[in-house]
Amino acid sequence: MGKDVIIACDFSSGEKTLEFLDRFKGRKPFVKIGMELYYAEGPSIVEKIKNRGHKIFLDLKLHDIPNTVNKAMSVLSRLDVDMTNLHASGGSQMMKAALEGLTRPDGSRPILIAVTQLTSTDSATLRDELLIETPMAETVKRYAENAKNSGLDGVVCSPLEAEAVHGYCGAKFLTVTPGVRFTDGDIGDQKRVMTPAEAKKAGSDYIVVGRPITAAEDPVAAYERCVKDFVD
Ligand code: C5P
Question: 8 in ligand 1 pocket by Cβ < 6 Å?
Fold first, then answer.
């Protein structure tokens, strides 16, 4: 799979999402469906968007005992999404169980990536609440290595970490990176950001872009700008 721009469709309803996607008459964007939309609409929203010809990243970040995650992933495998994810903090056994559950009878499966540390977790939370004394960068490295050794395809990380992840997990290990902003845009609540062109240079494999596209005056133009800067 080549580089691509994934639009984070963080809308509260299927209706709003489909209305938004109706604008895209040319290239069909890769779409990220998160918990809000999936819990509001259920699996049917995945089928509807898939039937319109979009690739789908189902961002549900599973984290439970290996058996439960295995069973949940085998249900999700029937939805024909292109990418899904889990929390690496669930451990290697859980990640291996997830991969097994996600693999369809014909051997095919969606791309499976792991969240290392959420970007909302800072060093103080790690140390004071989770009682993890190891520095953040080292935990991210170890979690990414655990994901790789469990057979996963990549991790969600900041574009600022993409180069390091490729350094220790190899060039083929995918980096899927949110935190993307245009230089002339609003950064909102994201703290560490890169432009699409910088993310490309840093080696990101997929950029996940939400508000710079969804809240733009002309979302199609904003998407095309991302594609031009990141993919072309
Ligand atoms: O609107 P924005 O471009 O900030 O959207 C980024 C998307 O990526 C959102 O759906 C957000 O939940 C997700 N995300 C993130 N940082 C992470 C993991 C996921 O921003 N570490």
Answer: yes
3 catalytic per annotation: no
Length of the chain, in residues? 232
Per-residue pLDDT of the chain (232 residues), as tens digits, is 579 999 999 999 999 999 999 999 999 999 999 999 999 999 999 999 999 999 999 999 999 999 999 999 999 999 999 999 999 999 999 999 999 999 999 999 999 999 998 888 889 999 999 999 999 999 999 999 999 999 999 999 989 999 999 999 999 999 999 999 999 988 888 888 899 999 999 999 999 999 999 999 999 999 999 999 999 9
The verdict on pTM exceeding 0.90 is: yes
Instruction: Determine the topology of domain 4-230 in CATH.
Output: TIM Barrel (3.20.20)
What are the domain boundaries of the chain? 4-230
> Angle CA(195)–CA(209)–CA(3) in degrees, nearest 5?
75
Q: Is the CB–ligand 1 distance for residue 10 below 6 Å?
A: yes
| C-alpha–C-alpha distance, residues 151 and 170, integer Å | 13
